[in-house]
Amino acid sequence: MNARELRKKYTEFFESKGHMLHASAPLVPIDVTGKLDQSLLFTGAGMVQFKPYFRGIAFPPHPSLVTSQKCVRAKDIEEVGNPAHLTFFEMLGNFSFGDYFKASAIDYAWEFLTGEGWLGLDPKSLCVTVFEEDDDAYALWEPKWIAVGLDPGERIVRLGEDSNYWPAGALSAGPPGPCGPCSEIFFRTVPESEMTGDYVADEKADKWLEIWNLVFMQFEWRGVVSDPERPHLGYTKQGMDPLPQQNIDTGMGLERTARVLGGFGTVYDTDVFSPIIRAISSRASKEYGVDEELDRAMRVIADHIRTASFCIADGILPSNNGRGYVLRRLIRRSILKGTRTLEIEGAFLSGLFPAVVEALGDPYIELSERGEAIRVTLAQEEAAFLKTIRQGHDRFDDIMQEKGTIDGRDAFFLYDTFGFPFEVTQELADEKGVTIDEEEYRTALKGAQDKSRKAHGAGDVFGGESEAIILAVAPDAPLHSAFVGYDRIRHATRLTQISPRFDKNQKTTGDFQVCLEETPFYAESGGQVGDTGVIEAEEFAFGINNTWKELGQIWHDCELVRFPRELVGVSDQEIGAALQSGTFFAPVLATADAQRRLDIMRNHTATHLLHAALRNVLGTHVTQAGSLVAPDRLRFDFTHGKGMTDEELASVENEVNERIAAASGVRVHQDVPIDEARKVGAMMLF
Ligand code: SER
Predict the structure, then answer these.
(1) C or N terminus of the chain, fewer CB within 10 Å?
(2) pTM, whole model, 2 decimals?
(3) CB distance 31 to ligand 1 below 6 Å
(4) Nearest ligand 1 atom, CA 46
């Protein structure tokens, strides 16, 4: 069974158990409610898009789902090339949202792995781990091993939170999110006779390969604590809360499992890689499987070109920060491996793209739909980097000439500015008889990494840093705030949540974030900026300067402009006391700035006119890659292989202006079923 068949079998199996097939989310971590998960750089697990379902703040189309999710984990890029480490991989997953739990999850996994007609693996080649305190999981696995005549004591290993709680760190200081104990399933990669019988040692030696993780999602780690120095504010440490229901989240590595099923030594021998490896080997005129160093270079390129192609397909473009930076690094690493290790002359990367389509175009149609954009982006980035490499060489020569030597900080500079890996600079230095202080290089690198991690989140499945916040919630506050602003901009409602902002010295600033039960304020979404306006009560008033959504709540950033009488001229302690006493949980009148909203709406309509005109003039490959819709301007990002000519610009402008001058009506069709919308030709960019 190859990877393509495995993907199909997995879906078939879980459909036969009543699951509904759900589409993969994009690599940019957008969840099922359409919200960007700010804590993550990439979608790194099947569950990422489903967080709102686990939390019970959005409702799934079906209580159990099955997916094959595109994932990127870009934390250990340097590890890529070894037998199992990838930056892009597919995760097969079955999910239950308050439907079945531990017993069925374990039954299903066992049946799929060992059952006739499914994977049919020999139980002797498997073992499992469970969280050390999870006696239920142990008791559920035990009879499975006994039934096949194997000793459960040897086959079930109890481990601590580092390995058997997901995500790791959730029990202590990890970032907030749904979590739970997990049970991992391993496959033996060497003959039984080579095993030591010590699970930990064997796993470390890659003799046990993890292929599937079953997470029993039942808690929410809030990771938010009140300030212990300010107990007068009265908010207790919030830690682990039970989720509204018990859930299942499983993730099976497609490439790893396909490797096991094919009896291959590495994931690169599977059908989701082999066309790409063949293409690289042919372009380099070097055989794969002969020399370990060359093989590793080919594997790195094969991994990176897959990741880069999928990133670009999902609208990520190479840049110097965040996701774009990861993409740029991957492209540059591939080029260096190709030109230096494989000694490929000239540009080669975009020429490998057809092999990516051959390996993964079915089922991932975005690869062919966005093929032109992917090829062009790869080619442009490659041409620019080849030029940079030449400049980097020149810079290296300058430094040598100036100082007669090169130190660790120079090596970091060359890495940071020209993308020269340390080994490349060291090689050049070797030729001049100079040894670079690697320790010094690493210190400079680490400093830069810490800085970028702070700025962008850790880049793992859960990233980012949790800050201490204080939040007061009205006793009967709903989980969702409702948006009522499609047909009104003024609405009488009540305040349900309030959180003061503090300055560096932990003093209140007069700025707050508040939620309303129902709000006429449009929250920033799909490029459209959030509304501004006022929220007024008898006792107080807030000026609203932005509106945004998170986890089902619509938040208003605001400034307290009229104080409750008892708060005039008082300290932050008293604001805290007022929060606690519920002063602010009062009826309010919320009014969005109408003139500004109308300007924003006009600019929003204009982005659609612009998009349509661009497609008419340049072709239908033009798809929206991002946009900004503000009251005073709009920006529309799209990919097109080259710059626009003056004539093209003029035609687009004329077309948009004619449409505006025609003053046709704009009609709102609200809550239209997706199939009907498709029938009338609505454009859908998900
Ligand atoms: N979320 C778990 C993981 O990524 C299982 O899907 O391992």
Answers:
(1) C
(2) 0.67
(3) no
(4) 6
